[in-house]
Amino acid sequence: MTHDEFDALFDRLRRDRLPAPVETTRRVAAAGLVRTGEVVAMGRPWDSVPGPDNPKPALHQMTELADVTAPEPTVHKDFIASDYHGKAQTHLDALCHVAYRGLLFAGVRARKVLSSQGASYGAVTDLLPGLVGRGVLLDVARLRGRDWLEPGDAVGGPELLRCAEEQGSWLRCGDVLLVRTGHLARRRRLGAWDADDLSAGLHPSAMCVLNTSQASALGGDGDSDVRPSPVHGVHSPIHVLAITAMGLPLIDNMDLEALAETCARTSRWEFLFVTAPLNIPRGTGSPVNPLAVF
Question: What are the residue ranges of helices labelled H in the chain?
Answer without folding.
Answer: 3-13, 24-31, 110-113, 140-143, 157-167, 183-190, 207-213, 237-239, 257-266
